[in-house]
Specification:
The complex is a heterodimer. By secondary structure, chain A is of the alpha/beta class. Chain A is 13% helix and 31% strand. Chain A is built from one helix and eight strands. In chain A, β1 (39-44) and β2 form a beta hairpin. Chain B has one domain (39-203): Ferritin, core subunit, four-helix bundle (Ferritin, Up-down Bundle). Chain B starts with 8 loop residues before the first helix and ends with a helix. By secondary structure, chain B is mainly alpha-helical. In chain B, α1 (9-26) packs antiparallel against α4 (71-100) and α3 (40-64) runs antiparallel to α4. The longest helix of chain B is centred in the middle third of the chain and has 30 residues, at 71-100. The chains are: A alpha/beta, B mainly alpha. The A-B interface holds A 44-47, 66-70, 72, 85-86, 88-90, 108-113 and B 41, 44-45, 47-52, 55, 106, 109, 112-113, 115-116, 119-120, 141-142, 144-145, 147-149, 152, 196-198, 200.
């Protein structure tokens, strides 16, 4: 979790300090929006909520496991973002979505559990 | 059968037929589940539970072929077959509950990813004992998952029926621990007065 948080801080800092011409192109409308400190996805009763989650680029997403059993949030394609790995009951893990796009994910342990993050 | 809305004669007949079939195939508790009333959340929970049962059936099948021909291996295999048979019954019951809600049970996967268990040292495939520990972790997590999720089922009758599966998962875990207790010193069949998220570590066995 620490590396993710570190990435989040670096991302926010870089965004704030970068010259205008180095920022994302205008087509990425959300990049001009204020990036939330974090957004929470709750894992409970075999479901990710909210889903789909729409966020600006660079938003840290905190996955909180409220179930008694462990879960994961793993990208469907295995590579589009760094999965959480196992999240034990009551634990949380943070993923920072650094690129725009639609990211589908699932729980490795419970394959019917699916979620989606839309980054703009 | 739902009591909060009138049912047409046709629906009563359909529910009655489903109830009879459920009673014959899966026992009286599941007969309660054939209500035709549910929510998207209920379907998600039951679908995940159905898939967990498929995972258990697959895991016991896959691991069973890796057990040794020793007395220990034969003992674990006998236990695995017994537990696998129960999971098959659970899956039938959950599938019936899903169907009663108008949903299709999820197709079983060809294989399941258990890498998080292996990475956590909660069993493996390298020895009979490792296989038994892996089965133990899966059974415990099934019980924990059901404990939390089934309690949130909106349909009361399905909730009651589904919760009857959970003690069986705990029974599997206790049976595995009892078997391992004969092989490993200090392993009690019931290691804690509670089975909950914060006592999971007491139930799962690591080397």
């Amino acid at each position: 979790m620490k590396p993710c948080l570190f990435l989040a801080l670096v991302g926010l800092g870089a965004s704030a300090g970068a010259p205008a011409e180095a920022r994302s192109p205008p087509a990425v409308l959300a990049s001009s929006q204020k990036v939330p400190a974090s957004v929470t996805v709750t894992i409970e009763a075999f479901q990710f909520a909210p889903s789909p989650l729409k966020i600006p680029v660079g938003t840290p997403v905190v996955f909180v496991n409220k179930d008694a059993a462990p879960h994961t949030a793993t990208p469907d394609d295995g590579k589009s973002f760094q999965g959480t790995g196992r999240i034990a009951s009551g634990d949380r893990k943070t993923v920072v979505f650094e690129k725009p796009g639609t990211f589908n994910y699932h729980c490795e342990i419970h394959t019917t559990m699916h979620g989606k993050v839309v980054v703009r | 059968m739902s009591t909060d809305s009138p049912l047409s004669r046709r629906k009563v007949l359909l529910v009655g037929t489903a109830t009879t079939v459920a009673t014959v195939l899966t026992g009286p508790s599941l007969a309660l589940a054939a209500t035709g009333k549910g929510s998207a959340g209920d379907v998600a929970i039951l679908s995940a539970a159905y898939d967990l049962e498929s995972q258990g059936i697959w895991a016991y099948g896959a691991a069973g072929g890796k057990l040794s021909d020793t007395p220990v291996g034969k003992m674990v295999l006998a236990l695995a077959k017994r537990n696998q048979s129960d999971h098959e019954q659970h899956r039938i019951a959950l599938g019936r509950a899903l169907t009663s809600l108008g949903a299709n049970p999820p197709a079983p996967q060809k294989e399941y990813d258990l890498s998080t268990y292996l990475a956590a040292g909660e069993g493996g495939l390298g020895s009979d004992g490792d296989i038994a520990r892996l089965a133990l972790a899966l059974e415990i997590d099934a019980a924990l998952a059901y404990q939390g999720a089934f309690a949130q089922l909106k349909n009361v009758k399905i909730r009651t029926a589904a919760l009857s599966i959970m003690p069986d998962e705990v029974g599997h875990a206790v049976a595995i621990r009892a078997a391992l207790g004969g092989l490993m010193k200090g392993v009690e069949a019931v290691p804690s007065p509670f089975l909950a998220a914060d006592t999971r570590k007491d139930w799962v066995l690591k080397p």
